[in-house]
Amino acid sequence: MEAVILAAGMGSRLRSITETKPKCMVKVSGIPIIEHQIKAYLDAGIDKINVIIGYRNDIVLAYLKSFNESKINIVFNLDYEITNNMYSLYLTKKFLFGKEFILSNGDVVFDDTIINDIVNNIPSDRIACDKGSYDEEAMKIMVNEKGFIKKISKKIMPASAFGNSIDLYKFSNISSEVFFNEITKIIEVENNINSWVEVGLDRLLDNGQLKMRPFDISQRPWVEIDNIDDLLKADKVFSSLLSLKHKKLFLIDLDGTVYIGDQVIPGASDFISTLKRYKKHFYFMSNNSSKSKKDYVRKLKFMDIKVSEKEIILSTDGVIDYLLNGGYKNVYVLGTNSMKLLFKEAGFNISSTKPQCVILGYDTELTYHKLIETALLLQQDIKFFATHCDMVCPTPQGPIPDIGSFLALLKAATGKIPDKIFGKPNIEMVVKVLRNHDVTPKDVVIIADRLYTDMELAKRINCDFICVLSGETRREDIEKSNYWPLLIVNNIGEIVNLI
After folding, report:
1. How many CB atoms lie within 10 A of CB 103?
2. Residues of 328-345 as b/e, b for ≥16 C-beta within 10 angstroms?
3. Are 411 and 429 in a shared domain?
4. Number of domains the chain contains
5. How confident is the model at residue 277 (pLDDT cuts 50, 70, 90)?
6. Tens digits of per-residue pLDDT, 125-173?
7. Both 321 and 334 in a single domain?
8. Which helix (H) or strand (E) holds 353?
9. Which distant-in-sequence residues (6+ apart) come within 8 Å of 199 by Cβ?
10. Are residues 361 and 440 in the same domain?
């Protein structure tokens, strides 16, 4: 038996991602949509998969070379900009006319067992559907009293709908002839090259030329991906993460994850309360060196999150430990008064006219005079350390310059770069905590909003990472990453029920 995947389109509602890749190559849980389908078909024992490609077909073509070429037949729709998926299917007529085949749209991810069933266990002339579901954007089906489908359309009203079609169809050799004859008529006689497959189906079901029954998928997972919300739903539905109950240690970012500015993220307080209820160990991590641990405790208390200083890990912790072990005493600190106080309390002289090193923090009290002092010191033979590397800090109004921006400014002025950068993603920031709790990487999960610090830290630890989109990172940014989060959610409140 053969299958057809209609994958020629761009996906205009995902344009922020599909400007550089076709829709079928958009990733769900780190795997392109088309790969989800191809692997499922191959695992089910399908003989040949006909893939119709158009927009950025070079990308799809290169990717498909990783599969068994004898099982994949490439069909090019070079008119993808002025045609629709019916025309793409029409291009397979010479291969499939009068043959039993399975048809799927290249923007849907299915539970693998659905594909296996429709290939091996379900009779032909079936439209797979999610009985009882209703989505305004989805194709719906109506069924008559004899159990045959009499209509497929987006316009079917809830009272008449049997359920959503999941864009998966199985045709017998006879219905294949009937269907290809109809779409040939629509394209060649009516000169309509911009219609959906379902337009032809609806005609034939309505006049009784096609006799098709519903195949109820019994509420198994599937997601049709038209926009970013659909993509986020698919990321969650097809994530390998089903529970966080087995995790022993939670490392949680603050800025952009628990709050933005002075606004707490929805569900953050409930999430921490749930961790406490189940006696889970957790620590808050922040690269933000503008505040002390006391400052963070007070801020979190105001947000109904009660923690102690021992449960907070800051980028300044690593700097102070490193300097103490290295025998440093006289230091110059470009930072807030709160940050300077931390170094004073640790025993450092921050007023020396001949410091042994310059320490750059996230200085929200920055003045031009401070920049001048720092730049002049850096032009001497002196060590240079930075508490972290974040380029921006999230705020309710939008991102603002963080220490990474300061580093770029100082490099432009002096040519100097730090001898060492602390904070995330450096593993030294959390190594003490990991040792104290005697945990393995599989026991740990990091929950945060940044890829280049938080996800990179998870990668270095080799632990799981949950990316929240409440801070700096957008779903589009993750699409470009080679390392994929275990789970992507809008905010931390969405994972409370996983604990």
Report:
1. 24
2. beebbbbbbebbbebbee
3. no
4. 3
5. very high
6. 999 999 999 999 899 999 999 999 999 999 999 999 999 999 999 999 9
7. yes
8. none
9. 86, 186
10. no
Q: What percent of the chain has pLDDT over 70?
A: 100
Residue 8 maps to which CATH number? 3.90.550.10
Report residue 494 CA to chain centroid gap.
Answer: 14
Query: pLDDT of 444-462, one tens digit each?
Result: 999 999 999 999 999 999 9
Residue 459 and residue 333 share a domain: no
Q: pLDDT digits over 91-120, tens only? A: 999 999 999 999 999 999 999 999 999 999
- Count, residues in the chain: 499
Nearest to 50 by CA among 108, 98, 91: 91
Which of 26, 37, 180, 164 minimizes the C-alpha distance to 95? Answer: 180
Look at residues 421, 451, 468 and tell me which one is the last residue of a structural domain.
Answer: 421
Please calculate the CA angle 390-392-395 and round it to the nearest 5 degrees: 130
Indicate if 378 and 437 belong to the same structural domain: no
Q: Whole-angstrom Cα distance, residue 323 to residue 345?
A: 13
Amino acid identity at 72: I
- Which single residue is written with the structure tokens 């849980």? 29
Answer for the pair 409, 371: CB distance below 8 angstroms, yes or no: yes
Label residues 470-479 b or e (16+ Cβ within 10 Å = b). Answer: bbbbebeebb
Residue 294 lies in a domain: no
* Average per-residue pLDDT for the chain: 95
